[in-house]
Amino acid sequence: MNRQLHRIFGVWFVVNLLIVALLLHRWGAVEVRNNFSELACVTVWAGIWLGLSLWLFPWLGLSSRMDLLEHRNAAALPALSGALTAAALLYAGGSLGEGPDYWENIFSAALGLAGWLALWVVLELGAGVSRSITEERNLASGIRTGGWLLATGLVQARAVAGNWHSVTGTVHDWLHDGWPAVILCLLALPVERFIRPRRNCSNPAASYNGILPALLYVSLACTWLWHLGPWEGMPR
């Protein structure tokens, strides 16, 4: 158990790189889909992107090194895994569609990441989710937070996907397609206050208080993605 959690997370890091590579191979720009060296290059950049994302997570109360390696906190694993996958989807979403240069992809992905992190800050300030995970080691809180991070990441990733036209157009599409992530945040705030660990219930059941809310968040996000349909320039 000493290093097992950290190793599992390391494997999950590699899995997310493969997810990015598969998404870009299937739906990326033409030069990425048809050129292995281009695909390999953007996948390497995805690894750097995920590494930088992991550097940001401790500022929001979750650290793979501290929580998994040093403190061996199993409750942090689903939360960090959801956050990592969200970051991977944001990178992939910013790279889906045609554009003149890779910097446009970076701008799109960074825009989605900024929106996602801002919502995470609001959730942390309003509900203190990291405390339930890192201090109280509540597995239900970790699962619930991981599901919420994944759900909001899905919405923000879809909001920045599509062909590049301009900075203004990208921001407009992000606002138009990404606003439901705010609704997920407003939904999560009272949920966290209602079912987080309390004195009379210090260890809420992971099934009802963790898995079900996480599935609700992800289901709502997927419903919105289904409503939006294909993004502009999506290969058939």
What does this entry look like structurally?
The mean pLDDT is 92. The chain has helices at 4-27, 30-33, 36-56, 64-70, 76-95, 102-127, 129-134, 139-159, 167-178, 180-195, 206-228. It is mainly alpha-helical. It is 76% helix and 0% strand. The longest helix has 26 residues, at 102-127.
Instruction: Output the number of helix runs.
Output: 11
In whole angstroms, the N-to-C terminal distance is 45 Å
Number of strands: 0
- SSE pattern: HHHHHHHHHHH
How much is the radius of gyration in Å? 18 Å
- Beta-strand percent range: under 5%
Low-confidence stretches: none
| Biggest beta sheet attributes | none
Structural class: mainly alpha
The helix content, as a percent range, equals over 70%
Instruction: Tally the structural domains.
Output: 1
On the 0 to 100 scale, the average pLDDT is 92
Shape: globular
What does this entry show, briefly?
The protein has 236 residues and is mostly helical.
Helices and strands, with pairings:
Layout: H1 4-27, H2 30-33, H3 36-56, H4 64-70, H5 76-95, H6 102-127, H7 129-134, H8 139-159, H9 167-178, H10 180-195, H11 206-228
Which descriptors apply to this entry?
0% strand; mainly alpha; 236 residues; globular; 11 helices
